[in-house]
Known about the structure:
The structure holds 2 protein chains of 2 kinds.
Chain A: E1 13-22, E2 25-31, H1 35-41, E3 48-49, E4 56-57, E5 70-73, E6 76-80, E7 91-93, H2 108-112, H3 121-125, H4 133-143, E8 161-172, H5 176-187, E9 192-195, H6 211-223, E10 227-229, E11 234-238, E12 241-246, E13 249-260, E14 264-266, E15 279-281, H7 282-292, E16 299-304, H8 307-318, E17 322-328, H9 335-342, E18 347-349, E19 351-357, E20 364-369, H10 377-380, E21 384-387, E22 390-394, E23 397-399, H11 402-406, E24 410-414, E25 419-424, E26 429-431, E27 467-469, E28 474-475, H12 476-484, H13 490-497, H14 510-521, H15 525-528, H16 542-546, H17 559-564, E29 568-572, E30 575-580, H18 584-593, E31 595-599, E32 604-609, H19 613-620, E33 633-639, E34 645-655, E35 658-663, H20 668-682, E36 687-690, E37 695-701, H21 705-712, E38 727-732, E39 735-740, E40 749-755, H22 759-770, E41 775-777, H23 780-789, H24 825-833, E42 838-845, E43 856-858, E44 864-874, E45 879-887, E46 896-901, E47 904-911, H25 921-924
Parallel strand pairs in A: 1-7, 8-9, 8-13, 9-10, 13-26, 15-22, 16-17, 16-22, 17-18, 31-41
Antiparallel strand pairs in A: 1-2, 3-4, 5-6, 5-7, 11-12, 12-13, 14-23, 19-20, 20-21, 24-25, 27-28, 29-30, 31-37, 32-35, 32-36, 33-34, 34-35, 37-40, 38-39, 39-40, 42-45, 42-47, 43-44, 43-46, 44-45, 46-47
Helix pairs in contact in A: 5-6, 7-8, 8-9, 12-14, 18-23, 21-22
Chain B: E1 4-7, E2 11-14, E3 19-23, H1 34-42, E4 50-56, E5 64-70, E6 75-80
Antiparallel strand pairs in B: 1-2, 3-4, 4-5, 5-6
Amino acid sequence: MTRLPSQAGERIDRTQTVSFTFDGKPVSALAGDTIGSALYAAGQRTFSRSFKYHRRRGLMCCAGHCPNCLVAVDGAPGVRACTEPVREGARVEHLNATPGLELDAMAVMDMLGGPFTPPGFYYKTFIRPRRLWPLYEWVLRHAAGLGRLPERQAERAWRTEYRRRHADVLVVGGGHAGLTAAIAAAERGADVVLAEEGPEPGGRLLWEGGHEQARALTARAREAGVEILCSAPALGHFDGLVAVWQGDTLHQIRAHQHVYATGAIEQPLVFAGNDLPGVMLSGGAWRLAALYGVRPGTRAVVASTCDRGLRAASALSELGVEVLAVADARPTRSTQADALRAQGVEVLSGWTIVAAGGRRGVQSATLSPLADGAGDGAQGGGVRRLSCDLVLVCGGEAPATALVAQAGARTEYDPARGHFRLAELPPGVSAVGDLAGEGYGQSAMAPARGGATPPTPDVAASRGKAFTCFCEDVTAKDIRRGVREGYDSIELCKRFTTVTMGPCQGRMCQLSSIRLMARETGQSLEQVGTTTARPPWSTVPLGALAGRPFEPAKRSAIHGAHRELGASVKWAGDWRRAYDYGDPEGEALNVHTAAGLIDVSTLGKLLVRGPQAGEFLDRLYPNRLSNLKPGRVRYGVLTSDAGRIMDDGTISRIDAETFYVTTTSSGAGAVEQWFSWWLADWGLAVHLSDVTQALCAVNLAGPRARAILARLTDADCSAEAFAYLDARQARVAGVDALVMRIGFVGELGYEIHFPSAYGEDVWNAILLAGQSEGIRPFGLEPQRILRLQKQHIIVGQDTDSESTPFGAGMPWAVKLDKDEQFIGKWALARAAEAPAETALVGFTLANGHVPTEGAVVLDQHGRAAGQVTSARRSRQLERVIGMAWVPSALAGDGQSITISDNGTRVSAAVLTEPFHDPGGELLRS
Amino acid sequence: MSFVLTCPHCGVREVADFAFGGEVSTRPRETPSLRELSQYNYFRRNVAGVQREWWYHRSGCRTWFQAERDTRTNHVLRVGLPGELGAAT
């Protein structure tokens, strides 16, 4: 292991070692190392293979910006080795190279690629024959990529949480400027959150010699009460909410004031071989040496356009890296350049790098005076080729404006600095530090003002690939090709070449691609402009966005009793419901022969009270309810103003001013919302209470139902005293209840509503009282068989958003002669005049085939004209029955329809009246 | 979409607490023509700017109220119970 001597401010702890594996081989690291620094210290130079050409890529930025060090850690791809802390026993693997990182079969793409694989080549090449598309896709998907997700992941192996945080001030970025702003706000009493993407605040103070200042500022911020989130990159700014990802938590931070201190990103230079392992950003090498004590190389060549690169060269030279030469693109020498000379380093003003050479890594650098001839161009005359193992580049810096641009800031090109700077900030948002071009006071640490605009290569002259985009392997030549093919706006060129669309999100390539565009189109950078900054700004696992999977389940108060009875419990909307108790057909049959009991507590239940309650319901329902007598029940279907069925249920009148409304189970919330909305709009003297959760409901049905109920109540249960569609308040099993004689399942039946607290008591009391009568509980599935025998619709199952009461065969539920302008009246009046094209009818099948729900109904010409909505086998009727939407011409009794069910065609006979008890005698008995 | 909304009863809450009821429209008072009915049922102004709209505090007090929101910025200018905001602009 090659480490530099111990330095103040380093992040590693030389007394503690940590070990992990890389591609199966053990690697020894120091506590505080990143995977990247440990691998580099262990001699690893190739970290990944590039996206398209499978070129070797090594550490470049050491800041989590570029894509060069993407690895998989413990099976999770897309992790940046340079910022991921080492963990004992971690399993680190390379991505995108087969059979291995050192010998990658697909590296042949680098030889072939270029002329044969320009941007968009696969859209143009892999067109014919069409039947080979699946093969092309398979090959391309395996050739390019940034890793593979595991096929399976242990359930809940990684749990994530959302956290909502409201604050006065949010500071994004924990460098000098961010910390200073946070302290200033917190010391004035503000509630401040600071989000820092690195493991500790301090920014470039940490490696530029200001680590003590950084730690003092951090301590002062903590003391002032700033909540500091570390290893917490901000992902995006969404209407004032900033999402910050930190490990297994997604912080959703909302603040009154946003301070962006996201700094400036050092830019690479575009030259042939600029992606070779060993070509590093000057700051990357500096971080590697100063924070982790890793020597980035022994013999370095430096190419810079500003003092930032020169400062790094100076620092590395002091740490013992031999700096052979510094090519400074500026024609005049800065004081920093003079200081370097004093250190004995050769500085070539007005020079730049034109090529880096080498096979597995950089072995040489070629420097050349700039074409305009100013500076030291005359010194050596021509080109100089230096043998080296490290090339440090600094192409100036670009303020990290993406997040603040998402917040609404505008940028403009600053020709003096050669980058896009902030021009306008939205209210409540400020920018400080390097992002705002401010630097931090001390002259030695001032930002890179007055840098030269990096030379843009003449792509025609360059041999070898010069990359503008390292993520997607886009070369300078590719930008030229894009422009020549007509993609001459930066947004079009971005989409065509995919430049700026990779994992670096434009950090490394946006500025250089704009410069190349400007050169190719002859426009100014201001005219070219920037591409839109979109979230996420930092790489984030989808799991972190998903949050904890909430699957709230509703259970009736009787649920425990169903479990004891051995019910098979299934989802029904939000509810966990008893589907059956082991024998659905038998349970249904028992309702016909003796009696059954079903839990219908899931029904929505609303109390509508007040002097105008009747009028309110008359306005909401298409039928009349104000004339309903106390103690009576009426069915009602709810329609929208477009005349479409929304829900259905029963309305019982308790007294002059009180109605009790039930809704479908799945529609309970929507109906409550619908009622209260119109109530808010109309402002009638009505009070609405949702008692869905407060009350349980059971349906006792079957020929023996009356005898069973009579044992549990003092109320007169005779057919005369308690007739069909009567509603009675009575004590049942000692509990105050509302009992309605209604018949969803087609037999004599009582729906009993009572307080939830007595749920299991009443349920058990009824089963006990009915034991001698042969009562059995029945579940949701037998209920569906029973209601289908009666052709009672289930809204949402047999109807859809286009169904009207006329099409659904319920014209009797609409009273168009009502005075009220009830909801749906005008549309229904029109629907009544123009008969529907299709109608909902019952059908029956002689043979044993039960059509799939959704099977197609064909018209006379064999075209699809309707669909089956429900179908079941009925043991009571000894045949298959169902409901279907069929063309109106085929909707009459005795018509034959053809059902096409997954290729099988069956004939069915239409029957428009209930299959069971068509006259309703049993219901009224 | 992620912003805060002030419920007239409960105060400032995340928008996820609420259900959106669409822009405030006027239901015809008398029998509308087919065109008027279709306009009312299916057409929305969908303005880029401030619009009056319905919100329901679903996860709170279950009150319907109206808000004036700038659809471009999601900035909510005013909220009020029905009738409190005066005539729509």
